Amino acid sequence: MDIHFVDQVSVEDTREAHLKDLAVQEKYGVKYHQYWFNEEAGTVFCLMEGPDKESCAATHREANGVAACQITEVEGGLYDLFMGENQKVDHGLVRQENGQIDTGHRYILTLDIIAKTISRKSINFNQLKLPEKSKNIALQCIAEYNGKEVRTSGFDSIVAVFKTPEKVLRCAHEIQKELLEGHRNSEPDSVDIIFNMGISVGQPLTEKEGFFVEAIRMSKRLCLIAGENEIITSTLFEELCDVNKLIKNHISFRTIKPAEQQFLDNLLDIVENRISYHDFGVDFLSRDMGISRPQLYRKITALTSRSPVTFIRDIRLTKALSLIKENKYNLSEIALEIGYHSPSYFSKCFHDKFGVKASSISV
After folding, report:
1. Is the dihedral of CA 135, 140, 212, 57 positive or negative?
2. Which among 53, 122, 140, 338 could disulfide-bond with 360, CB atoms 3.0 to 4.6 Å apart, if both were Cys?
3. Domains of the chain: which residue ranges?
4. C-alpha angle with apex 234: 232 to 235, nearest 5 degrees?
5. Sign (positive/negative) of CA torsion 289, 292, 295, 296?
6. Among the ranges given (38-42, 269-273, 327-331), the one the predictor scored with the smallest mean pLDDT
7. Residue 325 has pLDDT above 80, yes or no
8. Could you tell me if 237 and 274 are in contact, meaning their C-beta atoms sit under 8 angstroms apart?
9. Given 2.102.10.10, 3.30.70.3090, 3.40.1670.10, 2.60.40.790, which CATH number is that of 2-95?
10. How far apart, in whole angstroms, are the C-alpha atoms of residue 325 and residue 349?
């Protein structure tokens, strides 16, 4: 699949370009199947088969005198998962079931569920895994709203893709209601849960990223800054969906603006790259972000409802939880990996966040 950035191009222009590709494709051993056109975003995505990337690029160059901004090999099962099977194709142009042009937009939902023990006793490792009941509730809701689960690494994240913004938002709302209802009816001395959701909008490729890589990453990052039991999404999603009508009964929902989304990307790029540095903190983050400490405090607090110190700590401890569940490292190694010199202090911080000392988890 490839991506082209186009300006002032009509549907007729794209159809003519596709026909030109078909006219010369045999020369390069390439077969162009179909394409997606997003007039508002100024993007065209082409799906083709060929012996290599250069052959596909050469077809475009000879047929239309243009070069793709990126060409990415896509595995068939992953393609079907995101783009769908048995698509409606009109002379190469992909359309939705209702006949409207398929712009290539897909909607990614990431649900993070973290178990937190109510009991003070030592617990088994399996108790911190994603609770089966909560997982099944979420997966059932996803299926009911025609979403498809995307298999990713990690015990506590569920990622799903949807074709329409309305379906993903209704699904997120239903999951939110069901999990909160389950929380209210939970038994004492059991494992409680904290959950949050991020919804992103993405297209198959970007200029630098592979197949829906950017969309999945943004969905996960939105999850990371969401408050407890909150759904968070972007302004672009709000523009593509009648959010106000659909969320009037939502318990907790938030939208971030484009400038906030860009700030979030820069922030997490820095934090994730420096998380293992024991001396990494607010001063270093302020310097790397190029803003003053007061500005950093205001921006992070407004975006995450947490102070910079708490936000950095939460990212470290969330990573620690994932490393513990991998069962490959001892606690001293994990503490160093996330920037803690003292395993005992790390265990204390872990207990404060998750309700259990890391050292008490039996794996």
Report:
1. positive
2. 122
3. 2-95, 105-256, 258-363
4. 135
5. positive
6. 327-331
7. no
8. no
9. 3.30.70.3090
10. 17
Judge whether 292 and 320 are in contact, CB under 8 Å: no
Residue 184 has pLDDT above 80, yes or no: no
Which has the closest alpha carbon to 248: 172, 137, 173? 173
- Position of tokens 């405090």? 297
Amino acid (1-letter code) at residue 46:
C
Per-residue model confidence as pLDDT tens digits over 191-224: 578 899 999 999 999 988 899 999 999 999 999 9
Distances 104 to 33, 41, 82 between C-alpha atoms, Å? 15, 10, 9
Task: Give the pLDDT band of residue 363 (cuts 50, 70, 90).
Answer: very low
Q: Are 354 and 343 in contact (CB under 8 A)?
A: no
CA neighbours closer than 13 Å in the CB half-sphere of residue 207: 3
Q: What's the pTM value of the predicted model, to 2 decimals?
A: 0.89
Given a contact cutoff of 8 angstroms between Cβ atoms, the answer to whether 153 and 130 are in contact is no
The rounded distance, in Å, linking the Cα atoms of 240 and 274 is 35
In whole angstroms, give the CA distance from residue 95 to residue 261. 30
Distances in Å between the Cα of 98 and the Cα atoms of 47, 142, 163, 177, 354 are 22, 22, 13, 30, 47
Alpha-carbon dihedral 315, 227, 308, 279, rounded to 10 degrees: -10
